[in-house]
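Hi F.,

I've been meaning to write this up properly since the lab meeting, where we talked about keeping a consistent format for the predictions we share between groups. The idea is simple: the sequence comes first, exactly as it goes in, then the structure tokens exactly as they come out, then a line or two of notes. No screenshots and no reformatting. I'm using this chain as the first example so we have something concrete to point to.
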Amino acid sequence: MNVRRNSVTFWAVNAILLFSAALTAQEQEVMITNPGFEDPVLADGEVIDNAPGWVTTIGGSDGIFNPDFSMYPGGSAAEGNNAAFNNGVDIRQVLSATLQPNFCYRLQVAIGRRLDEPFPGYRVELQAGGEVLVAEDSQTPAPGEWVDAAVVFNTGDSHTQLGNNLEIHLISEGVQVNFDNVRLTAGPSANLPKVRIVAPSGNTGIRQAVVGPPNAPLTAADFTASINGVPAVPVEPDPGWMPSLPTAPRAKWIASAPRPVNGGEVASVLYSFTFYNTCNTTQMATIDFTYAVDDLLGSAANPEGLYLNGLVGAIPRSGSGTLEPPATFRQENVLSKLDISNLIKEGRNDLFIYQTDQSDLLPNASGIIFQAEIKIGCKVTMSAQPVMAQFAQVAVGDGSSSSFAIHNPSQQQLTVQLEFFASNGSLIATQERDIDGMGTEVIALEAPDDPLQVGWVKITALGNFSATEFLDLVVGGEALPRVGVLPCELTRKATFFASDLDGRMTGLAIANPNVFGSAEISVQLTEPDGTKDGMFMINLLHGQHRSLFLKSEINNVIEGTVTVESSVPVCILSLIQDPQGNLTTVAVSTEKH
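Output, unedited:
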């Protein structure tokens, strides 16, 4: 039995998620329009208002530029040539992808600080249906540098925004923040690594409701009012307060409403923060809470001060029943590793913080600054991860057939599933086969009397295997020699040799297996002398496939190198047919994505 631990940290006021991990086999890239702001092409130092593909403002507050040497060393963007500039607005894009249950979403954005401009701060948000799922504002690049901001969000199985479109928001707090290289990936939560959640400054994560008086016990209605309340408000520290938390320097003081220092109404506040536990079974859970408060965390009637999931979820703490000494707003206080295993739930959880204003320790001022870290240990069992092999071209019917030799290199029996998709992305056929340890099986797709169907194939198993495809094609009534094809490597860019000299023809097959978004594909021929010729475009939605001979799209003589570039990773195969109709596979050089 293994224990997977999630660490959930909140810094007042806004929740974000950070992690560093390699893209897993089950993650898919989510389609973003103009993610690197390379459209349109700009000369060095050129600037345009607004960003194609993004919703921006009018009046020059944002746009795209190609940095020069006065802005960044070498005049470089984080990726490509262009970047976005933002002078205090919200650059946003609504995606075609929707929020899915039990998924983990990872958003990464390059944040830039110009040499010749101050850095006012920023916020990167992932939203769905207009609700902020997660946000990040913790990076402070040095002048002339780019750094990556990353946020991660787990949906669980019951999020209120499931099915709504995802949105990316790139927000600047002033003049000027630069953004570049926006990336979003998604995959099943169970297949993703450890997640760490932290919450720095902002105003979107924590909600609040004024409650009281301090000597009155909290009620269920108070907790409901907090969940449905308005966002907590960052406030400037009173001169008597400690300015920041040493262990959480980005945390900010918050209160029920902005008001002049040493002036305004007395208010006790119940704050709430929603987070999600993706454990199917929680083995352990603790909370570490660091804070300063004016006046008290809790009250004589509500001595705990911390609650999880409502009134019955009081979190016990050492010294329960006694309040802190005066001047808790001048020192950092710590409640360490309080056990909340019996309080935390699968899916949605709400953390509540009760800040009491006694009005006598520092008149007419109240607020709290805190960091809360929740660590969750999940009971999980080790399981094999799916292994996939994909083939970009399959032909079945009218005398043609395709077969797949699959070898199981392990000592244990392996079950493989083969799925045959038509060019329009629909599923034509599936086959499942058990392969003994160290054994090899052949799965054949054949219907010689049926009309010809072409498409692509995906083979999946919970364990390693090797696979080879054999194409038995009939062209013009003649059976061609069998062609062997290895699985493709998903790529955004590939090159191969093409020629139609001496009666030859070069063929190309492409399949888009991605879960999210369409593949915008360009095909470019470069002749031996370097001349570029005959570029054409292909658009493939999820699951779609296309196969063609290049001369059907390029009218000139074909001889040279073909470069295929795609907006998302795709599966590519190239074949050359000789004058007798015989086919030979062409080596395709791919770039990692």
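Notes:
The mean pLDDT is 81.
The helical segments are 220-227.

If this format works for you, I'll send the rest the same way.

G.
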